[in-house]
Amino acid sequence: MAAGYTLGMEPSGAERLVVAVKGTFTLPARGEEPTLAEEQVPLTDDDKFTGEPGLSAVTAECDWAPRKPRCDILLNGSAYAPGGKPAQRVQVGIKVGNWQKVFMVVGDRVWRGGPVPRAGTPEPFEVMPISYDRAFGGVDNFHPDPAQHRTYLPNPVGRGYHRLLEPYLVDNTPLPNTEEGNAPVTTPNGDYRPMSFGAIGRNFLARYPLAGTYDQNWQDNVFPFLPADFNPAYFQAAPDDQRVDSIVGGEPVILLNLTPDGRRDFKLPVVDMPIVFVQRAGGREEKTATIDTVTVEPDVGRFTLLWRASLPLKRNIFETKQVVAGRMSRAYWRAVDTGKTYYPSLGQLVSRPPLRPEQIE
User: What domain range is 338 assigned to?
Assistant: First the structure.
């Protein structure tokens, strides 16, 4: 698995040593169990997008959040028409444990202008990508006067939103490809929930207010620390309806029309993930890392689990000499305690330059 550490800061200014471990697993066929993938996805150092950053959907968010109060469940993928037969509408869904989310994916269609704009007939599809790029929202920048432009703040990167309904501004512009099953998109200026399974952007209405207040008082008296009204929920990449209190492993997962076979079900793996902080002054402290991000990617046949743990720092990050992720053998810890070099196999020992006997464990 991929593992690393960073320095995290609380709004109070207190610092923490944050450790993240990402494990990549194969998406199993029905009746099989997931296995650790040969190719492990590295930790993500910055946000990734489908297009221009901030103006398109997020495909992967930076893994270095100091902490997440709850667990994000994310999915990047596509809708598949049942049996491979083209369909105008397909219901998609994911269930993890007791949590689930379901909505409709609709074929490409456009607004038909008129005194009252209406949605055109959807085109049948076999496979349709799902993202916030294709959910209701976006920027109404169709009017020649920029002062008339508006943004749908719940989803600034979507499609289908119009504040002004003149036919020449609306006619033949695209509708979203996703919508709630009980709230279909019927008017360009409606108030609809954007439907997707991916991460919401940091500029979405549900998220950016959580970052707190950055006014003149903050600049003069608080910078470079976080403002007092910063909400740790800002670090949640998933929308509110895709957060759960905890994921521990072993939860059953069901995917509906998100794979070519129509349904996939399996259980999340159960992995013991201790994180041991070895102090430079002697001694060590063990924490149990918790899963705070589940990302399913059916189109590439994998999913990832992200574990996170942290340790409050008294002075600075250098007071910790070493961080060990995962369950290690007694021989390993004996080597750490005695200052010797640990070799997990004879092959690794013989491939090293000759060492003095007292250096070997």
Answer: 329-361
